[in-house]
Amino acid sequence: MRIVSTYRFIISVVILLFLFTLTDAQSFRRSPGPKKGNHALKRSPARNKQVKVREPKVVEAAKKKQEVDEKKRKRDYKKYVKENRARSLEIQSPEVRERMKQNRKNADLKYKNKKKLITARSKSAAKKYQ
What we know:
- The protein is mostly helical.
- It has 4 helices and no strands.
- It is elongated and about 130 Å long.
- The model has no long low-confidence stretch (mean pLDDT about 80).
- The protein has helices at about 1-25, 45-50, 55-90, 95-130.
């Protein structure tokens, strides 16, 4: 009886050892890749250069023309507003003209004060949450 149990024990140990070697053979660990040597540093500088993608010349020219037109439009609008203001002052009587000028000054002053308050508030809030 003792011999049978000893055989069973030896057989089970051999089977376990055999299973461990089989599972190790199927491991999914990768072998280390080739080491990088000095040959990796010998790349030509052209490979490392960033390539700038350019649009077709027609598209670039159209964009430039669009920018020029936009600047001209803004300039013309400012000129129109200035002339329109001057004309609206011109056609008024002297008392009304003075009142309009004073109203414009007051409005500018209020706007400036309001802007100062807003920036002061935002600065204090910015300090508070830093």
